[in-house]
Amino acid sequence: MKKAELKNYYQGLKYPKDILNILSDAFPDAKCALIHNNPFELLISTILSAQCTDTQVNKVTPILFKHYPTPSHLMLAPLSKIEEIIHSTGFYKNKAKNIKECARLIVENFDEEIPRSIKLLTTLPGVGRKTANVVLSNAFNINEGIVVDTHVKRISKRLSLTTVDDVEKIESDLMKKIPKKSWGIFSHLLINHGRTYCKSQKPKCSICPLNSICPYYFSLPTIKKDE
Ligand code: SF4
Question: Which domain holds residue 80?
Answer without folding.
Answer: 39-140
